[in-house]
What we know:
Strand order of the largest sheet of chain A: 2-1-5-3-4
Number of helices of chain B: 20
Mean pLDDT of chain B: 97
Low-confidence stretches of chain A: none
Oligomer: heterodimer
Largest sheet of chain B: 7 strands, mixed
Shape of chain A: globular
Largest sheet of chain A: 5 strands, mixed
Radius of gyration of chain A: 16 Å
Mean pLDDT of chain A: 97
Low-confidence stretches of chain B: none
Number of strands of chain A: 5
Strand content of chain B: 25-35%
Distance between the termini of chain A: 54 Å
Shape of chain B: globular
Radius of gyration of chain B: 27 Å
Structural class of chain B: alpha+beta
Number of helices of chain A: 5
Helix content of chain B: 25-40%
Helix content of chain A: 25-40%
Amino acid sequence: MPKLHVTTSVNGEPVEFLCEPFETMLDALRGQLGLTGSKEGCASGDCGACSITLDGRLVCSCLMLAAEAEGHEIRTIEGMAKGETLHPLQQKFLEHAALQCGICTSGMLVASEALLAKNSNPTEEEVRFWLAGNLCRCTGYDKIVRAVMETAAEMRETAR
Amino acid sequence: MNVVNNKWIGQRTIRPDGVDKVTGRAAFAADTTMPGMIWGKVLRSPHPHARIKSINTAKAEALPGVKAVVTSRDIVDFTIEKGAVMLGIQDMRWMCRNVMARDKALFPGHPVAAVAATTEAIAAEACKLIEVDYEVLPWAIEIDDALKADAPILHEFNKFDGKPSNIMGRIESKKGDIAQGFKDAEIVIERSFTTRPVHQGYIEPHACLISVAADGKTTIWSSSQGQFMVRAMTSMLTGIQQSDIRAIPAEIGGGFGGKTIVYLEPLATLLAKKSGRPVKMVMTREEVMRATGPTSGSKSTVKIGAKKDGTIVAAHGSFYLQAGAFPGSPIRGAVGCSFAPYDIPHVLSEGFDVCSNRSKVAAYRAPGAPIGAYAVECVLDELAEALKMDPLALRLKNAAKEGTKAAHGPVFPRIGYIETLQAAQNHPHYAAPLGKLQGRGVASGFWFNAGGESSAQVNITEDGNVVVTTGHPDIGGSRAGIANICAELLGIDYKRVSVIIGDTQTVGFSNLTGGSRVLFASSMVVTQAADKVIATLRERAAKIWEIDPEAVKWENGAAHPVSPNAGQFEPLTLADLAEKAPSQGGPIGASVQLNTQGAEGGFGTHICDVEVDVDLGIVRVIRYTAVQDVGRAVHPSYVEGQLQGGVAQGIGWALNEEYIYNRDGKVDNPGFLDYRMPVCSDLPMLDCALVEVPNPKHPQGVKGVGEVPLVPVMAAVANAVHNALGKRFYSLPMSPPKVSEVLDAPTQQAAE
């Protein structure tokens, strides 16, 4: 079977690439598109290190075929900061030391941003259940949960 | 060093590698490519135990796109007969057989060949074309099976007590006379325990990208806990001399001990050498679960004798640890650490290293110590209950302190164990009320910590800033700690200090990141290098001012005359002196290499609250406090991070994590869905109480902190479950099926 030609948008930029029919979105991001911020920890949708959004919806890019990106809007960790300005979640992760090795961090941040887009005032339990699909083996999640909740509070304050 | 008025030590600064990691820029092992790169794949044994009669690679080599195939014939053989060849704690005889099976495959997942091809798909296809003729042999996975009289023997040359055996070795620590000790005892409690092997669970699978030029010059890009370990092991297994191998440390996506040995690098090097092309290899999660790590499963018996007033007089522990396919389980940690928190006159602690048909164990956070502590700390809980003593009071009565001689050898200097017990007693958590089906447990733990070889360079840039190069992969924030220390010593803003991890050809030999040694050792060399730089800066200022260097002091990032008597001069800042460097003697920098000494052991005491869902058998940790003597918290956030991460891993070990085997002797849950590590919704906030008793043998008082936090956890959780249910569990994990089984069993009085 010939390769498929895909036209899509990644982080607001128009993008075209060729892919095999069986290739995942994660493969295309990391391979053809050179966006290695999304990580492969399991390739089975269990660890969340490959989290991206598809038209604003949080998905594991390892569970999505690259060809499915056709005509949709993809956002990845690489699109989170605006130029030199970090997203408030990125800044708060740094201040709270909410990362150690950093391999889960891209996915955690993308998932957290998706949460705050839906729910600007999450409870601790809501944060914990939303992030239950993002494994972190280093931090015990404590500082991650605190960083997300504090960011939410600050963003609510800023939005007022 | 003045530990009170520090400007940067003790500050929660932003880590130097932070922005790269929150923006997706940081380059981990699988994130790099090279022009002309091809892909490597490993063919693995499907059998737990099989003799390899022949391997035919002809069909694979003939497949279009295949560029190279390697088997054990290509790997340097360290023969059994010639005896041990050690690299650190690893015997290369086992390492060469672990990276590629020779005469026998010893576990499902054991590599038997590797292929490099132009695409991953072709490499995978070629693996299927390799014909391996196996003679399948009987196998043993569990310790009890491996110890049976008629057990299949993995290593036929090995004898224990004069007979062929899977027990590969025994060690002991001894103090006093336990026979006498138990005679002196008024109460004796003896219990047996089992724990399951658990994987380190790093989220980043092993990966590497390797290029070998026609002249043998080799570049390795991989993530590991030691680029020098990667260089040395690859050199020994491929025959390429170390000076020709440049091992570049990628960012490491978690290790926890599991990346202290090589799996892929020697294979990719040989494939790259044969093919003339750079070769990339990335393990799947399934390969990680089948063929790397874990730490040992265990079976232990612990017997403790005490006086009625709670004075412990004798202790005996015997710890059988699963080594997996090759010798080398962490019996030293189990034997040495288990009783170390206590001042006991008569101790015998013995460890047995047992091989069986599963993957070779790798280090995991305080290797062996959590296994031993689980047994000892659970028995202490029963002892406290039997004596009607508070469990922390029992520990306090017997606590090791300055001058205590540990059974494993050392006489403790000033240590902070008692302080951790007192801090736990005084913590609001310890007095908080508990609800129905809730329980509280405590436990303590010890880890040796480590020093060893470390190298660093401190260089002043032309614009008067600082670059520090060390040789240890940063696994938990060590660059942030080094930046704080260097800024403190030089009296400048920490943002002016850039800390990087050098590759093997740009910085001096530095031993592995492991044993909780990195900040201890690297801050020692960085301190000495910074002191040399400061001496140079004072000399330069003295030369410019035409006064004696002794009359110049370094303060707040600038040279000043020590007193008005020395002369009236405007201070010369780091930037001033850097600018003048070319005319005043040249570049400013220093390099220091040491075999660091004086790493003192660390102690922690944990408090755990659980709630048990008796309908579903689910144990939930609802509150947790980890107290630890951390020496000096150079960057408190990352110290807390070590404690919290260790606790989370321990909770997984205690409650859920285990490999499930099918009837063919293969792991049936080689993925994150069924190998259940704690997720965010499984855990509460994890509180930390940092006790700081500075290490007198370190310039900043640093003690290792990373290993201790895993040591007490399983016992703390088990003791809490007992407190909640009135029933004791003697095996891990306390998973829902097991808890339900105990809850559903007819009530009976626990045997005393």
